[in-house]
């Protein structure tokens, strides 16, 4: 479920860099190293697309709670994993924080109820699994650093679906507005985003599809295909609640007595230290 967890966070900021299995070990080295910049200048924006991106950038997002469904599918062997859970995000100080909790996983009709948590507390990326009774903490930000860039497209491993800047999106994608179809989330605009050549996003992903709720002005579905393994990835957000004054404690890992805890601090080069 490692890939599942962070994948939920690929939306207009891309919960995708982390989504397709690039969490944990890569979360250390890549956290302080920006992705490659586009090789060419972005094309002029369609005015309709520009209005949607303006809405996204101007949306004041202080905290978010939502139900989520994350699906990873291999079409070559008709194999699908579906995870259901919740996400919570808070624009905390000095660094934003999030919690993703998966409550169940369904594979070929078999449902497992073991919980799994993925937490970023401003310094550590934390994974906890009920099945193994284990907590793994990986340091991705040094104590004297802030983590803002970890949440921006092309800057770090935790791009967020909320509050992305239009300029960052345009620098990494060509974007077009797609006509709605019945399978789209209701009351949403569909943006098809193609990573620009020469970017890290282009190396890893095909087109990225964002569905933006017209009332909330936040993404409610993100879908893409990973180039390396051709896996289809879809993250859907429902029952979205914005700016409800969520307490910072709501994004903390709960107390898990009896779990084994392992820490992986950053090494001198800025990446996570090697496992012992």
Structural write-up:
The structure is a single chain. The protein has one domain (2-264): Lipoprotein localisation LolA/LolB/LppX (outer membrane lipoprotein receptor (LolB), chain A, Clam). 11% of the residues lie in helices and 36% in strands. The chain is built from four helices and 13 strands. The chain has helices at 2-7, 47-58, 166-172, 200-204; strands spanning 63-74, 79-90, 97-107, 110-112, 116-120, 124-129, 134-139, 173-178, 188-195, 208-213, 219-225, 232-242, 260-264. Strands 1, 2, 3, 4, 5, 6, 7, 8, 9, 10, 11, 12 and 13 form a 13-stranded mixed sheet that branches. The longest helix has 12 residues, at 47-58. Residues 1-35 and 272-276 have low confidence and may be disordered.
Quick tags:
single chain; 276 residues; mainly beta; outer membrane lipoprotein receptor (LolB), chain A; 13-stranded mixed beta sheet; 4 helices
Q: Any idea what the CATH architecture is?
A: Clam
Give me the CATH fold name. Answer: outer membrane lipoprotein receptor (LolB), chain A
CATH class: Mainly Beta
* Count of β-strands: 13
Bin the helical content. Answer: 10-25%
Oligomeric nature of the chains: single chain
Instruction: Provide the succession of SSEs.
Output: HHEEEEEEEHEEHEEEE
Structural class: mainly beta
Q: What distance separates the N and C termini?
A: 23 Å
The biggest sheet, with number of strands, parallel, antiparallel or mixed sense and barrel status, is:
13 strands, mixed
Report strand %.
35-45%
Write down the overall geometry.
globular
Mean pLDDT: 79
Query: How many domains, as an integer?
Result: 1
């Amino acid at each position: 479920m490692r890939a599942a967890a962070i994948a939920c966070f690929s939306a207009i900021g891309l919960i995708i860099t982390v989504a397709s299995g690039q969490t944990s070990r890569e979360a250390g080295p890549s956290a302080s190293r920006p992705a490659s910049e586009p090789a060419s200048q972005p094309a002029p924006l369609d005015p309709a697309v520009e209005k949607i991106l303006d809405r996204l950038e101007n949306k004041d997002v202080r905290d978010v709670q939502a139900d989520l469904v994350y699906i990873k599918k291999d079409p070559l062997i008709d194999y699908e994993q579906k995870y259901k859970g919740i996400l919570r995000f808070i624009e905390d100080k000095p660094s934003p924080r999030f919690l993703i909790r998966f409550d169940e996983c369904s594979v070929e009709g078999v449902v497992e109820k073991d919980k799994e948590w993925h937490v970023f507390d401003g310094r550590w990326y934390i994974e906890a699994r009920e099945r193994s009774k284990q907590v793994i903490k990986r340091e991705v930000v040094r104590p004297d650093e802030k983590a803002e860039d970890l949440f921006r497209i092309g800057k770090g491993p935790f791009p967020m679906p909320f509050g992305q800047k239009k300029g960052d999106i345009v620098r990494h994608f060509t974007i077009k507005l797609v006509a709605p179809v019945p399978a789209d989330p209701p009351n949403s605009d569909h943006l098809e985003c193609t990573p620009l050549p020469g970017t890290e996003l282009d190396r890893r992903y095909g087109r990225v599809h964002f569905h933006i709720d017209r009332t909330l002005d936040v993404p409610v579905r993100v879908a893409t295909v990973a180039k390396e393994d051709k896996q289809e990835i879809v993250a859907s957000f429902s029952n979205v609640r914005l700016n409800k004054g969520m307490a910072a404690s709501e994004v903390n890992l709960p107390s898990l007595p009896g779990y084994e805890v392992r820490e992986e601090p950053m090494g001198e080069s800025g990446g996570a230290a090697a496992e012992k």
